[in-house]
Amino acid sequence: MVAVASTDGKNIDLHFGDAEQFFIFDVKNSEFLELRKKSNIRLEDHTDRWKESTDLINDCKVVLCKKIGKEPHIELRKMGIKAIILDCNVDDALKECHNHLNLS
Hints:
104 residues; alpha/beta; 5 strands; globular
């Protein structure tokens, strides 16, 4: 599964830690599976914000986001999740993931 930091599910347009939601896709079929949203609790601490993001996508192989900080990038790598920084539409990104990362 691939998590996408997006406001609309069509464009990769959010910073990993600031994303309030992640669209989850099955990369094999480029099929949308579900929308996962962060809690409504306002987290002021920067670390808490990105840790909530990592908890939401802990079963994914890849996360696509517009930007990501060093600490969450390292933590995701420890979890076996590849973070890919992109600024494009989701359909193109999913095709690239399927073709080049062999995530089927």
